[in-house]
Structures are given as structure tokens and as C-alpha cells.
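Hi V.,

You were right to ask for the full record rather than a summary. Here it is.
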Amino acid sequence: MAKLTSCFPSGGSFAYLRVELGDFVGFIIAGNILLQCVIGGAAVSRSWTSYFATLLNHQPNDFRIVAHNLAPDYSYLDPIAIVVLATICVMAVVSTKGSSIFNYIATIIHIVVLLFIIIAGLTKADTKNYSDFAPFGVHGIFQASAVLFFAYLGFDLISTVAEETKNPGRDIPIGLVGSMVIVTLVYCLLAMALCLMQPYKGIDVDAPFSVAFEAVGLGWAKYIVAAGALKGMTTVLLGAAVRKARYLTHIARTHMIPPCLAIVNEKTGTPLNATVVMLSATAVIAFFTSLGILSKLLSISSLFILMLVAIGLLVRRYYVSGVTTKANRIKFIVFLALILGSSIGTAIYWASSTDGWIGYAITLPIWLLSTFGLRLFVPQAREPKFWGVPLVPWLPSLSIAINIFLLGSIDKKSFERFGIFTLVMIVYYFLYGLHASYDTVKEASSAKQMKNVEEGALN
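Predicted structure:
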């Protein structure tokens, strides 16, 4: 295993924001990342049931149990998802090496299936299905864009393999940017093929491609699609199970959550406790919750994390304790507050207004002038040593504005669920996480011990 410098911790955005914005923000990010992992796995496992049903010539909900006494969004109980997650848990616990070999082979098959879906789907393309290209207008486009972040879940988890990377300063950015470009292209081609096969009103929510191929007369193709989807989702669940456990292990090493979750089994070399806890929580959510609720909650969490990462980047570039002068610190805080305030104002105005423009004439110039002021009047206190985000502060400021804007496109009930989750996290942090992490830091009296805490030598 390659030796990793401390500049590239395996904790991803959790480790990054914990260093830049403090333990509290780091804990909030950790909770949101774990929320993403749990909900993402629950959503995929429920989709697994839907495609399994279509493979056996059934409707997506045929293998779910209807609980009429529960709310509609929680009334379709999914026992198959529980079985799938239990199987994944066993595979992830037994052998990381075996899981990696399975993922490698399954990924090759998955690429072939994706190419088949795109090519076969385009042979049945009907451009008339694009005649009503934006049926819900601009608001509908941005609402869909907000939910689309569900599909981008997991890119941050690439950083969890930093410790196995020979040159993380080069390889991690290449892996992140390269995979996002490829996946975005594939998503666009798949969406184009689906919408050209079927009018948007006829697209099935649970198993869209299988139903679409049957609708255009390629009934035999739905079996290939369903089998490929099952294989692909199994690969996703297995790969995510390994990365989820690693993330939970890294957070447990800080003692923000019980350190027993950081224990690695000596026989299997896998974080047994973390894997079982994560997949058990995933199974509980998957059993009750509909895909619509999961996708929106996932999107809120993803957008929130990306917004904080952009803020963390600005803090890293423009503030260094003992280097940044008091005047520059005050200017930085003022400009950052204006960027955040104008972005929030734009999002609120968008969510509450359908055709007005006066609000944008106020908030957008404030955002532009604030970013320009940050660029012109506040010197950067730190330069990147290995690889740095270009166009600072414009790119992170734009990221803040876009993420907050997309958050304004998500419905109120989803924010209420996210708020409840966040409140529970805050209560837990002040009752347990704050004291446990403080005691750990206090015990680490030397710089070497502090490094060991971060890298997992202290448990």
C-alpha cells in the first residue's frame, strides 16, 4: 500500500471541511454524507426490486407489500430490498478483495448493457416525443436539475481510496473530473434515448427502460435491460457498501461517533461493525420509503454539502491564521456574507415568484459585485501545492450560487424532513460528539498524536 502524505486524508469532504470550518461543520457534513450513503443505498435497493419484477413479467410494485394504514409514501413495504442488502452486507464483510474482483467483472458487463440500451433505444426513436420539449417550463427544468443530483451521489467517495493511490495529488482530481465527465455524457445519452422512445407521460418511475422497450415493441430487450440493471445496481450497492464503511470508520476515528465503528476485523481485513451498522440503517429506510422521497432528500443533502465545500475552498484560499490581516479578514467575511445572502435571496425569489424579474435585478448584481470585490480587494493567503481549483473566487462563488438556487427548487416537505434530521444531528453532537471529540483531542498532546488520530492510529 502506498504511503500517503497527510495532505490527502481519506475522509473526503468531511476531513476537508473539518480542517477548514471546524469540528461542528465537519460533523454536520459527516452526518449528511452518511445520510447520502443510507438513502442512496435504500433508493438503489428499491429500484432493484422494481427491475426484478419486470424481469419476471410483473409490475414494479407486485412484489411489495401494501400497508394501507401507513401514509402513501411509506405504504409499499419492500422485503426483497432487505434480502438484497443482507446479501451485499455478507459479501462486503467477507472479503474486500473478492468484492473488488466482482465489481471489476460486473462493470465490464454493465458498460456493454449501457451501450446496448443507447443504441437499441435510438433505433426506436421518435422525434415527435420531443415536440413538447419542456412541458413544465423553466421551473420544471430546474426542479428536475435539483433532483438530478441524486444521480451524482458517490463522487466524493472517490477520495476514500486516497490511501491506496500512489500519487493522490494528481490521481484523485483526474479520477473525480474524468468520471464525472464520462458519467454525465452517459446519463445524457440514456435520457435522450428514453425520451425519444416514449412520451414523458408514459415513462415509468420505477423501471423506466424496461417498460419503455416493451412499449416500443422490443419486449425481448426488456429482459436484457432488467438483467443489466440488476447487475449494475448490485455492483453499485457492493461498491458503496465498502466505501460507506470506510467513511464511517474515518469519522469514528475522530470519536464524533462511537469509536467501536472504527474497528477493522483482523481476519477479514474489513470494518465489520461499520458495514453492518450502515447496511442495517439502509435496510430500514429501504423497507418503508418511496423512491420519490429518497431522491429529493438525497438532492438536498448533496447540494448542501457541495455548497459548504465551495465555502470551505474560499476559506482555505483567503484565510490563514497568523497570515491574514484583521482588515483582510473582515473584508473576506463581508464579501462572503454578501455572496451567501444574494444567493439565498435569488433562490427565495425564484421559489416564490413565477414571472417576476425585479428581485433578480437586485440579487444578481450584489452577487457579481461581491465576487468581484473579493477578487479585487482581498489577497489570497494560500496557494495550492499540488492541484488547485481554477478561477478562484469566481468558480466557488458560482458553485455557492447555483447550489443554493437549486435548493430553492425543492419542495417544502423535503426541507422539513431534512430539518428534522439536522436537528437530531445537532442534539446528538452537543450531547455526545462534542465532548468525545474534545476529549480525544485533549489526550493527543503532541502533533504526532494528532496526526495519528486523523489517520486512525488512536481508537
